[in-house]
Amino acid sequence: MTINGITIDESKFNSSQMVEICIGIDECIDVSIYADPKFTWEQMAEIRAGLENRIDVSIYAAKKYGWRKMQQIRFGLEKGLDISIYADPKYDWRQMHHIRKGLVKGINASIYADPKFTWEQMAEIRAGLENRIDVSIYADPKFTSKQMHEIRLGLEKGLDASIYAAKKYDCSQMAQIRLGLEKGLDVSIYADPKFTSLRMGLIRGGLLDKVDVSVYADPKYGYGQMQEIRWGLERGIDVSIYADPKFTWEQMHEICMGLEKGIDVSIYADPMYDYKQMRQIRFGLEDEVDISIYTAPKLTWEQMWEIRTAVTKGLDISKYTDPKFTWEQMHEIRMGLEDRIDVSIYADPKFTWEQMWEIRTALTKGRDVSKYADPKLTWKQMHEIRMGLERDIEVSAHNAKH
């Protein structure tokens, strides 16, 4: 193929490359510089754009530069910048971009023109230089870009960033220390890498609210525990009763809620109770019922719930508070008491709760359950017999389906 006296072997180029060559020929530029199949069409476009702007494209017309890198070098040449500081394939195009931007701004880009810095780190150093701060405190590849960002923000606000400009703090911890410094707080109380950023935030918040954070500013407490102690302090509650790492934050919450309601939490402020058990005891105390009937730690919280519900409704469930009854069995007994039936017929742990249900259902309808109130029968057999009795059909235990 010959265009304007220039012969091009089309078989060596794809359609996009041919378009770039044709555009160059039409613009009367020397396409021989880039009419080479080793260049992608994007690289050709960058070389062509340089030729059109009459810059020395030989500086970047090389396969080792991707088209984005070529573009950054071209932009620099067009601005008359000393691109030798970044015209090196060891930089990715984003790094080149930030070095070029620094040169455009007239700052000393050599401070960060080093491939050991990521482009994000370069961006933070450049931003600091543009704002005329001493970046030497953080222009170190040991800091992540996010850590650099926090240090830069502190310096820009005139803070003593040296307090937290240390690798031992992650960026979130740095942020908490910086925010404390901005408010003039004594950050030494929590500027310790043993505290997570979330825990630092709780201590900082406590300082802002003017509570005695020394009560919970201790790495032995988790975030949730700190939160419950702070919550109590803010409400003027005597947190000494539960400010102990032996309690989970959920247990602390139940004790704190009890204290706020003015009840005697000493009854359940013991780690032998899980927080759900504590809650059932607390509910009982708030309702002013006799909780002594269900405070045994061996009772599950579901069993406690059933007993508490029965007591609240004025039912005498004292004979059936034994842990040998599952909470489902207790439920069936309680429902029977509410229906005012003789629960002694089935209130025996030998019956499963499903069997109890079959017996209770019949009793509430005034049926005679003597024919199947036997734990040897499965609940399905009981069901068959009960349904037969309700239909006036004689179904013996022997004939009931297994």
Task: Give an overview in words.
The chain is an all-alpha fold. Among the domains are: 133-212, no CATH class; 220-288, no CATH class. The protein has helices at 15-26, 41-52, 67-78, 93-105, 119-130, 145-156, 171-182, 197-208, 223-234, 249-261, 275-286, 301-312, 327-338, 353-364, 379-390; strands at 2-3, 6-7. Strands 1-2 form a two-stranded antiparallel sheet.
Order of the strands making up the biggest sheet? 1-2
The gross shape turns out to be elongated
Low-confidence stretches: none
Largest sheet: 2 strands, antiparallel
Distance between the termini: 91 Å
What Rg, in angstroms, do the CA atoms define? 40 Å
How many individual β-strands? 2
How would you name the oligomeric state of the polypeptide chains in this document? single chain
N-to-C order of helices and strands? EEHHHHHHHHHHHHHHH
Average pLDDT for all residues: 94
Features:
two-stranded antiparallel sheet; 402 residues; mainly alpha; 45% helix; single chain; 1% strand; elongated
